[in-house]
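FAQ: What does a ligand-bound record look like?

Like this one, built around uridine-5'-diphosphate:
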Amino acid sequence: MKRILTCVGTRPNLIKITQLDKWFAAYPHIQHSLLHTGQHYDDKMNDVFFRELGIRKPDVFLNINQGTQVNVISAIMNEFEKHILANRPDLVMVPGDVNSSFACAFVAQRHGIPVAHIESGLRSFDMTMPEEANRILVDALTDLFFITEESGRVNLLNEGKSENKLVFTGNTMIDSLVAFLPVIENAEIRNKLNLKDYYLLTFHRPVNVDDASNLTKLAEIICEISQTKQVVFPVHPRTRNRLKEFGLNEKLQSPNIILTEPIGYIDFIHLVKYASAVITDSGGVQEETTYMGVPCITIRPNTERPVTITEGTNTLAKLELPVIFELLQQMQNGTYKKGAVPKYWDGMASKRLVDAAVQFVTS
Ligand code: UDP
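The answer part, i.e. the structure of the complex:
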């Protein structure tokens, strides 16, 4: 029996793998296991996704989440190496661009175990983002590249990867959305939060939240836009700490600004679907808004997911009130672009991925 091990560690990782087991079930001669590094560990950033999305309990849990990024990466490598030495899988699959993805890919490659990268080839070309280094490092260690959008294919070919190792699977994150759409539709969160006409915000990238002057600017912008519509802002733990550290919570006290803990996936996507616009710096949220045709403003100088701009509903913007206001105005008066769903964002990406992974280990 051939064995495939998928390694996850964070919220966005989990959302990228919910449909894999469904398709692995068609291959009873393949054993698919799940390893969780523990990088995200609390109820709001982790457990809720297992409960809501029917992800099975991980076969292996490394429970590593304390210390600096380097502490976490090296501790994952140490523990994962023990696991790899005891149970040599035939393929290790890592989703995304987080520290867990790099740590697990590195150890597998060092022990001669092939690596498959889910969401391969994305590039922001901005090495100030820790995720960009992870993307490049993981792809350097990868044997089988699963691609979500055309830019990924072009980037990998430009980096000299051979075409026959690239598989254009489409977007497995969108598979989760498609699978849970009926449940998402029935969520009660808008009633619970008493929402009518609102903007949805998420922010957690260091460039926006770790810098006191940028986070202050963001808080001021939130206050301004809340004069026109309600603003719902599920606050990432990193951002919550910074708002407190920089003394900005007071600024955001207003009946029109609803600050919440991170929200479970079903409620969150429901909020995306019915938002007038989403303002974010998230990677995944740029894709989910594109799939749902919801206008999205991404407060970043670049994106590793350019199809959300060229085909989808996303626009990059500076952290400047007039720029954001102008875009919101276009959305309000119907002149903002409408967008289309990119190739293979059709709910079947996980099937293409599983078929290719099985073929890889059995051929
Ligand atoms: N998400 C969620 N609840 C929230 C905020 C985001 O379920 O309160 C989901 C979102 O739908 C997307 C994923 O988390 O699927 C994105 O995670 P995040 O923005 O933390 O990471 P990134 O994509 O930027 O790496």
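Follow-up question: can I read anything off the structure? Yes, for example: The chain has two domains: 2-171+345-362, 182-333.
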